[in-house]
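User: Here's a protein and a ligand (iron/sulfur cluster). What would the complex look like?
Assistant: Let me lay out the input and then the predicted complex.
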Amino acid sequence: MINADDVGGVHIKYLYHCPRQLWLYARGFRPEALSEAVQMGEAVHATSYRRATPIDLGSARLDDLDGDLWVHEIKSASKPSVADEAQAIHYCYRLHKVGVAARGAVLHYPKTRRTKRITYTPAHKARAEEDIANVLDTVASPTSPERLERSACRGCSYQDYCWSD
Ligand code: SF4
Protein backbone atom coordinates (compact mmCIF):
# COMPACT_ATOMS: atom_id res chain seq x y z
CA MET A 1 0.00 0.00 0.00
CA ILE A 2 1.24 3.51 -0.74
CA ASN A 3 2.06 6.19 1.82
CA ALA A 4 1.91 9.99 1.57
CA ASP A 5 5.35 10.28 -0.03
CA ASP A 6 4.36 7.86 -2.80
CA VAL A 7 1.43 9.97 -3.93
CA GLY A 8 2.27 11.55 -7.28
CA GLY A 9 0.66 13.54 -10.04
CA VAL A 10 -1.11 10.58 -11.60
CA HIS A 11 -2.78 9.68 -8.30
CA ILE A 12 -4.03 13.26 -7.95
CA LYS A 13 -5.32 13.35 -11.52
CA TYR A 14 -7.22 10.11 -11.07
CA LEU A 15 -8.59 11.20 -7.69
CA TYR A 16 -10.36 14.03 -9.48
CA HIS A 17 -11.21 12.13 -12.63
CA CYS A 18 -12.53 8.93 -11.08
CA PRO A 19 -11.80 7.42 -7.63
CA ARG A 20 -12.26 3.94 -9.09
CA GLN A 21 -9.51 4.65 -11.62
CA LEU A 22 -7.26 5.74 -8.76
CA TRP A 23 -8.06 2.58 -6.80
CA LEU A 24 -7.29 0.36 -9.80
CA TYR A 25 -4.12 2.26 -10.67
CA ALA A 26 -2.83 1.94 -7.12
CA ARG A 27 -3.32 -1.83 -7.42
CA GLY A 28 -1.19 -2.08 -10.51
CA PHE A 29 -3.77 -1.88 -13.30
CA ARG A 30 -2.04 -0.05 -16.15
CA PRO A 31 -4.19 -0.21 -19.29
CA GLU A 32 -3.38 3.47 -19.90
CA ALA A 33 0.06 2.44 -21.16
CA LEU A 34 -1.60 1.24 -24.35
CA SER A 35 -4.41 3.71 -24.77
CA GLU A 36 -4.70 6.04 -27.72
CA ALA A 37 -5.45 8.98 -25.46
CA VAL A 38 -2.17 8.49 -23.61
CA GLN A 39 -0.25 8.10 -26.86
CA MET A 40 -1.84 11.32 -28.07
CA GLY A 41 -0.76 13.05 -24.86
CA GLU A 42 2.79 11.88 -25.36
CA ALA A 43 2.76 13.11 -28.95
CA VAL A 44 1.59 16.54 -27.81
CA HIS A 45 4.44 16.60 -25.31
CA ALA A 46 6.97 15.58 -27.90
CA THR A 47 5.95 18.22 -30.41
CA SER A 48 4.97 21.24 -28.34
CA TYR A 49 7.60 21.99 -25.78
CA ARG A 50 10.93 20.66 -26.87
CA ARG A 51 13.12 22.76 -24.63
CA ALA A 52 11.47 21.56 -21.44
CA THR A 53 13.53 19.92 -18.73
CA PRO A 54 11.49 17.30 -16.88
CA ILE A 55 11.96 17.34 -13.11
CA ASP A 56 11.83 14.02 -11.32
CA LEU A 57 10.69 14.26 -7.69
CA GLY A 58 10.39 10.54 -7.21
CA SER A 59 6.65 9.94 -7.13
CA ALA A 60 5.96 13.18 -9.02
CA ARG A 61 7.45 14.03 -12.40
CA LEU A 62 6.72 17.45 -13.80
CA ASP A 63 7.33 18.74 -17.30
CA ASP A 64 9.46 21.79 -16.58
CA LEU A 65 10.50 24.35 -13.97
CA ASP A 66 11.67 27.67 -15.40
CA GLY A 67 14.33 30.03 -13.99
CA ASP A 68 11.66 32.09 -12.20
CA LEU A 69 10.46 28.95 -10.41
CA TRP A 70 7.23 28.49 -12.34
CA VAL A 71 6.19 24.91 -13.07
CA HIS A 72 5.09 24.32 -16.68
CA GLU A 73 2.78 21.49 -17.60
CA ILE A 74 1.77 20.57 -21.16
CA LYS A 75 -1.73 19.15 -21.51
CA SER A 76 -3.29 17.26 -24.39
CA ALA A 77 -6.84 18.42 -23.53
CA SER A 78 -8.36 21.57 -25.00
CA LYS A 79 -9.11 23.38 -21.78
CA PRO A 80 -8.20 23.41 -18.08
CA SER A 81 -9.83 20.94 -15.69
CA VAL A 82 -10.00 20.71 -11.91
CA ALA A 83 -7.73 17.65 -12.15
CA ASP A 84 -5.07 19.59 -14.08
CA GLU A 85 -5.11 22.36 -11.49
CA ALA A 86 -4.93 19.92 -8.58
CA GLN A 87 -1.99 18.15 -10.22
CA ALA A 88 -0.12 21.43 -10.76
CA ILE A 89 -0.72 22.46 -7.14
CA HIS A 90 0.55 19.05 -6.04
CA TYR A 91 3.80 19.60 -7.96
CA CYS A 92 4.28 23.03 -6.35
CA TYR A 93 3.65 21.45 -2.96
CA ARG A 94 6.23 18.73 -3.64
CA LEU A 95 8.80 21.31 -4.75
CA HIS A 96 8.26 23.34 -1.58
CA LYS A 97 8.72 20.15 0.45
CA VAL A 98 12.22 19.73 -1.02
CA GLY A 99 13.08 23.41 -0.47
CA VAL A 100 12.28 24.82 -3.92
CA ALA A 101 10.00 27.84 -3.54
CA ALA A 102 7.91 27.30 -6.66
CA ARG A 103 5.85 30.40 -7.36
CA GLY A 104 3.08 28.53 -9.10
CA ALA A 105 2.27 26.71 -12.28
CA VAL A 106 1.43 27.50 -15.88
CA LEU A 107 -0.75 24.97 -17.66
CA HIS A 108 -0.30 24.90 -21.44
CA TYR A 109 -2.95 23.62 -23.86
CA PRO A 110 -1.23 23.54 -27.27
CA LYS A 111 -4.36 22.31 -29.08
CA THR A 112 -6.16 25.56 -28.32
CA ARG A 113 -3.11 27.71 -27.48
CA ARG A 114 -4.59 28.43 -24.10
CA THR A 115 -2.60 28.83 -20.92
CA LYS A 116 -3.65 29.05 -17.31
CA ARG A 117 -1.44 30.49 -14.58
CA ILE A 118 -1.94 29.45 -10.95
CA THR A 119 -0.09 31.33 -8.20
CA TYR A 120 0.79 28.99 -5.34
CA THR A 121 -0.65 30.17 -2.00
CA PRO A 122 -0.90 28.79 1.57
CA ALA A 123 -4.46 27.71 0.73
CA HIS A 124 -3.03 25.57 -2.06
CA LYS A 125 -0.69 23.89 0.43
CA ALA A 126 -3.68 22.92 2.57
CA ARG A 127 -5.51 21.66 -0.51
CA ALA A 128 -2.52 19.59 -1.62
CA GLU A 129 -2.35 17.95 1.81
CA GLU A 130 -6.08 17.27 1.73
CA ASP A 131 -5.76 15.73 -1.74
CA ILE A 132 -2.98 13.42 -0.56
CA ALA A 133 -5.13 12.34 2.41
CA ASN A 134 -8.06 11.69 0.05
CA VAL A 135 -5.85 9.61 -2.24
CA LEU A 136 -4.73 7.47 0.70
CA ASP A 137 -8.33 7.06 1.92
CA THR A 138 -9.54 6.03 -1.53
CA VAL A 139 -6.71 3.58 -2.09
CA ALA A 140 -7.19 2.00 1.35
CA SER A 141 -10.79 1.08 0.60
CA PRO A 142 -11.15 -2.74 0.59
CA THR A 143 -13.54 -2.59 -2.35
CA SER A 144 -13.34 -0.61 -5.55
CA PRO A 145 -15.34 2.64 -5.69
CA GLU A 146 -18.45 2.66 -7.85
CA ARG A 147 -18.18 3.26 -11.57
CA LEU A 148 -18.94 6.69 -12.92
CA GLU A 149 -21.90 7.17 -15.24
CA ARG A 150 -21.06 5.50 -18.54
CA SER A 151 -21.05 8.84 -20.35
CA ALA A 152 -18.26 10.07 -18.03
CA CYS A 153 -16.08 7.08 -18.95
CA ARG A 154 -15.61 8.12 -22.56
CA GLY A 155 -11.90 8.06 -23.38
CA CYS A 156 -10.92 6.29 -20.15
CA SER A 157 -8.38 3.53 -20.74
CA TYR A 158 -9.95 1.41 -17.96
CA GLN A 159 -13.24 0.89 -19.79
CA ASP A 160 -12.49 -2.70 -20.77
CA TYR A 161 -12.09 -3.56 -17.13
CA CYS A 162 -15.05 -1.55 -15.79
CA TRP A 163 -17.59 -2.26 -18.53
CA SER A 164 -16.84 -5.79 -19.72
CA ASP A 165 -20.10 -7.19 -18.24
S1 SF4 B 1 -14.07 3.34 -17.08
FE1 SF4 B 1 -15.28 4.86 -15.94
S2 SF4 B 1 -15.60 3.96 -13.92
FE2 SF4 B 1 -13.92 2.85 -14.89
S3 SF4 B 1 -12.07 3.85 -14.19
FE3 SF4 B 1 -12.64 4.79 -16.14
S4 SF4 B 1 -13.87 6.58 -15.61
FE4 SF4 B 1 -13.77 5.26 -13.80
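Summary: The radius of gyration is 16 Å.
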